[in-house]
Specification:
Radius of gyration: 18 Å
Structural class: alpha/beta
Number of strands: 11
Strand content: 25-35%
Helix content: 25-40%
Shape: globular
Largest sheet: 6 strands, mixed
Number of helices: 9
Low-confidence stretches: none
Order of helices and strands: EEEHEEEHEHHHEHEHEEHH
Strand order of the largest sheet: 7-8-9-3-10-11
């Protein structure tokens, strides 16, 4: 049972690739039921930050706690078993879907449930079918990824992440691989999850969506948090010159 309302706590996080500092002293918190929007130019460190919290990258220094449990403290990682337990609290939706092409939609959603959580086939399929109905994909149960549109594939990947019942769901540019027509259907799914008080961290280039759906916005550039705060304040009335420059085109519309 998770008792803390602080689902994610990041303190003084640093990460380099060779001589390139990708994350420079990053600190922030995310609380239960909140949506954190992360915006910024390509190469600003947004995806690396998400991958670090989801244990897909290792950091050089700093601390990360998930649901009150230390994942890494002052650059030292917890034991493999503790990291495995922490990972169960986190779900990640990739920008390029990452579905298994040789698995049906149903098996894409049930496989991890059975392997990671030890659920029976019957229980895993019940959960999968409920989520597919929620995603308006109940007619695609036995289809394969190649038979789906990009928007449908992304909805399957969201259902797959939700099936593991994570405490927090991360989205890494969930609409970047989609055309504008399909982008709307994915944003609608995320809005619905926000209304259901799913804790989420969303990296996105969709400024209107970030402003209207997030509880808090972080603007990153060159590996640092340049500005953060209320979404409407940050996007409609940024205080930092770098934020103003980044949002200039959006705010001129």
């Amino acid at each position: 049972m998770i008792t803390t309302n602080e689902i994610i706590k990041v303190e003084h996080l640093k990460k380099s690739f060779g001589k390139v500092d990708v994350l420079k002293d990053i600190s922030f918190s995310v609380y239960r039921g909140d949506v954190l929007g992360i915006i910024g130019p390509s190469g600003s460190g947004k995806s690396t930050l998400l991958r670090s919290i989801c244990q897909l990258e290792t950091v050089d220094s700093g601390s990360i706690s998930i649901c009150g449990k230390p994942m890494v403290k002052d650059g030292v990682y917890s034991s493999k078993e503790e990291l495995r337990q922490i990972a169960l609290n986190v779900g990640l939706v990739f920008q390029n879907f990452n579905l298994f092409p040789h698995f049906s939609v149903l098996r894409n959603i049930t496989e991890a449930q059975k392997i990671v959580l030890g659920r029976s086939t019957e229980e895993a399929e019940t959960i999968a079918l409920e989520l597919l109905k929620k995603m308006n994909l109940e007619t695609k149960v036995f289809s394969y990824p190649c038979e789906l549109s990009g928007g449908q594939q992304q909805r399957v990947s969201i259902a797959r992440a939700l099936a593991l019942k994570p405490e927090v769901l991360f989205f890494d540019e969930p609409t970047s691989a989609l055309d504008p027509e399909l982008t709307g259907e994915i944003l609608a799914v995320i809005r619905e999850l926000a209304e259901e008080k799913m804790t989420m961290v969303v990296v996105t280039h969709e400024m209107s969506f970030a402003r209207d759906t997030s509880d808090k916005i972080i603007f990153m550039d060159s590996g640092v948090i340049v500005e953060q705060g209320n979404p409407k304040d940050v996007i409609n009335n940024p205080q930092e010159e770098r934020t103003k420059l980044f949002l200039k085109r959006f705010n001129e519309k």
